[in-house]
Write a structure and sequence with these properties.
- The protein has 50 residues and is mostly helical.
- Helix content is 38%, strand content 8%.
- The protein has helices at residues 6-14, 32-41; strands spanning 21-22, 28-29.
- It has a two-stranded antiparallel ribbon.
């Protein structure tokens, strides 16, 4: 969904930049709606030239 490496997702989770539900030390789940919102917040709009 994010199009990044698993290592990157783990780093973002550890830095608490993306939200997750930690079921145990090794079992982590992500809410797709929360990830979509995270992506939308960080989307940079393109500048169009006339």
């Amino acid at each position: 969904m994010l199009g990044v490496a698993l290592k990157t997702v783990r780093k973002l989770t550890q830095a608490r930049r993306i939200s997750c539900v930690r079921l145990s030390r090794r079992c982590v789940r992500y809410d797709p709606a929360a990830l979509a919102e995270w992506i939308e917040q960080r989307t940079v709009k393109a500048i169009t030239r006339k």
